[in-house]
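Researcher: Go.
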Amino acid sequence: MINTNILLHFIMPQILVNLTDYENAIVTIVKGKHNFKNKNEAIRHIIREYEIEFLEPELRPEFIKRMEKVQREPTVKVDNMWDFFGVERD
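Model: Structure:
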């Protein structure tokens, strides 16, 4: 019998960040603009936005998962690419 009363608790990493007054003001603005409860949520939002905007696609976790899925797909052996795709060459 499985005990369903067990609660799983995941410990998130914690960091101490030193911000300049300007950086702190930016975090406060993001917090207010998006109605976040605290600055932690604002910082996580900033990180997610950075990931979407600036990280190269091959570094994103969803890209890696998609490539792993493609890698598991069956392959097709092609002797002549031009014939396979029906392309006539001059």
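Model: The first helix runs from residue 21 to 33.
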